[in-house]
Predict the 3D structure of the following.
Amino acid sequence: MKWDYKLGRIYEILESTLPQVDFEQEDRLVDDGILDSLDVASLVTELNEEFDIEIPNEEITSDNLNSAKAINDLVERFLYDD
């Protein structure tokens, strides 16, 4: 798989929060309570700062945050949204 800088940074941000979680395999981060509300708030703040985007509150859902891929897709929507 081609290394993607953006996805790599998302993994780094997630791993800095919860280093014991295998974010490449996990796909129920919010649904299983791996990320709690404080983790989610911190994650969204870091994503906004890292990628110079603004994720609106209505997009902060378990579907958008349950996996690194879902988070990557969320970030991409706001990176390339004109």
Summary: The CA atoms of residues 1 and 7 lie 12 Å apart. The chain has one domain: 5-79. Helices lie at 5-17, 37-51, 62-65, 68-79. The mean pLDDT is 92.
